[in-house]
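Before the break, one more example. Copy the sequence into your notebook; we will annotate it together after we see the structure.
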Amino acid sequence: MNPKAQEWLKLSQWLRQREQQIRRANQMGASVPTAKPPNFEDAEFLTFLQEKNVVEADSKLCQQLEIEAAYQAILASPASEKAIVATLGYTHDQSRLDALYAHAANYTRWLEDEASREASLLQRTGRRGRWLQVIGLAFVLIVFAVGGWGYFTYKGWKRYLDHPAGTQKGNTKLVVPRGSDAETVARLLKKAGVISQEQRFFLLVRYHHYLKNIFPELQRIGRVRLRAGTYNISTSLTPQQILSVLRKGPRRRSIRLTIPEGFNIWKIAARLEKKGICRKADFLRYAKDPNYSRKVLGWDAPRLEGYLYPDTYRFYKNTPPTKVIERMVSRFKKVFNPTFRRRAKDLGWTIHQATTMASIVEKETGQKKERPKISSVFHNRLRRKWKLQTDPTVIYGLLPKFNGNITKKDLRNPHKYNTYRHKGLPPGPIASPGLAALRAALYPLKTSYMYFVAKNDGSHVFSRTLREHNKWVNLYQKRR
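Here is what the structure looks like once it is written out:
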């Protein structure tokens, strides 16, 4: 800081002390003591005080002169602006800092007016040479004025962006209605005490696209979009932090969703809609689309049945169905690990065939411990090229219109999932198998069973011959 700037700074500090002295005397009802300004060798400072005609008992005038002296100090040493502002304590006094910037703007306008009047006067005198000099001087003054205005404007915005904008401490509730524009949001923020300068925040939102080219920190926010909702927002945030919060939207509460083992796509869709996560029709449209299935899975499948892994998830309300599906499929791929993939390859199966078998085992099993044994029956039938003859596949081909009661007519229905009519595995899974069913499908027990029948208590009885099987059917099914 050069000596001249130091002198102006000393004068500004003296005026600050004088103002406080006058205020204390006025509050106590006492007379204001006289005070002598500091000694200045430079006549410019004495002229400044004489021209301003300092009134000893006028605190407002002292404050005004203090701001003017501070500005002259900055003009004398622009590189020392931060040090001057910090020395005077303006970094913690927003009103004086704003007054300093306002004085800078007024001083700039005064220079422009003076240059304009000088040019007008010389134009009337007709002095051509002097006129050109005035034009040059006016140009220099205007450039200086614009530069000064731009500099102080930049510093003002910089300070605004980097400091808390609230008028109080703590958190407050902020409700932003749907369809609110930037002006409405700024008004609500000021009412809630989150910001103090409504108009400036509105300008920040309105011209963010241009301001981010000047202030790099605004580029991290991205495109400004003020989201509606109820916020619990801190009043100690800076304007750029407030923008970031409003862009992300209010914190949403997730919804817990449990998909049991054996659910098919229609049951999953119905549960999603009931929970408010997504619409049933939208979910089914993607789940039944073979092109989308190929894109998500990475292999051919008629639909995503079987790959929506049964588990407990958490989703937000109105989540896109594609995100729900991708999450469930991702979980399936983690469960169907490389060990399972190698085992399927050893059996001569694709992942799709293994999952199809697992879904049949899942739907036929009432007791978990029976899964490997039931799987062995289907493996034995496939090995002998017998029909699987399993009711759940017939029922799946009748969905979603199945009434819950399977008939002989249904068993004769030629649809492609009817394993009473077609040999081998059906075209795809019939439900979402869990880990135990997948493991049972890939690692069946080594048995010679070819039949099984339900005992109506959740368990099954297994047979090696048709004669033995018919005996158990007569006992557990026909008599019932």
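The first strand starts at residue 171 and ends at 176. Residues 226 and 478 are 67 Å apart (CA to CA). Try to locate both features in your own notes.
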